Request: fold
Amino acid sequence: MIMYTSNLKWTKQEKLRTNKEKSLLNTNVKSDSYRNSPTNANLKGGLNDIGFRLVLIPFFGIAIPWITNMVDTLDVGSWNFKLSFLYTIGIAYIVWEGNRFLLFTLRNYFDWFNKPLQKIGALLLVVPFYTVPISVLLLSFWYRLFANVAPEWSKIWLATAIILICVVFIVHVYETVFLVKEAESEKLANARLEVARAEAELQGLKTQIDPHFIFNSLNTLSYFIDINSKKAKIFNQKLSDVYRYILQNRDRDLVLLVEELQFAQDYFAMLKVRYDDAMYLNHDLLEIDQYLVLPNCLQLLIENAVKHNEFSDQKPLKVNINLEKGYIIVKNNMSVKRSHSDYGIGLSNLDERSRLLFKRPLSILVENGYFIVKVPVKKV
Reply:
């Protein structure tokens, strides 16, 4: 008779679906929250450079008049002296904000990846043609308002040249930051695309499971209807219990190992209706409620063992399940059918899902007359 070493109930298993499991199975929530976050929206709409501007605009507004000796004619400490610096800070603000607006506007028409030459040409045209006239005009007014002398054009042109150099440097900083942000956004978009591709591929793999399982089960049920109606009724009841589990978990990427083990035992009990003492299942799994595993993985491996081996009451099929070093290990003795074909959809499906979700393949061994499959698990 079948050897079960645990007695688990469906109601108990449902309670074991913890919040930790849900967090592992719904990783897309984080990416969605990031996508809608203010920080990400800010990166899309512009650049959070307020602190940058609050520091550098007053700095340039004060430093450039000192460097060019424009304030030498003013009485240091007077209100006229202080107001003159407030005026030059205003010039720095107008020059900065105007170039910033032009830079952000140009980004809607040119980018470094698709139109690099047009981008350079636009910047070389727009930045000097805005910066130079504005700077010359406002600096000449400075002399009339605060120095009460005719404009010293040598100092004005020197200050304008310094302003233009500073503007070019700041534009370079802005463009560098934008390029970094665009590269990060591109990387994030590629990562999301890869996740979407993996999810689509995983969903496609899931849809292969049900038809495969139903096809084999209906063949068995048809066999019983013809030869033993009593067993057909029992088998049908077991089939409904097993298929209920498949329906409950078809939208889940991972399930608790304790649930999957109970499902495997129920599935094996269904097979026992047909094969009686020709097959045995044994496991030594204890304290497994903290592990997650691929849905239907144990059932697929048991089905694979039944499909590809010859067995009888005298030479029964023995399936052993244990947990070791991050893998659930399913081992069965081999007596390969003469009409043996490849392992088909079952193992390849399981291997693909394992690669997508665990980034690890199945480990398949043939050793000392045993067929061994190691399936990755994840600890909650």
User: Anything to note?
Assistant: Confidence is low (pLDDT under 50) at residues 1-45. Residues 228-379 form a domain with the Heat Shock Protein 90 fold (CATH 3.30.565.10).
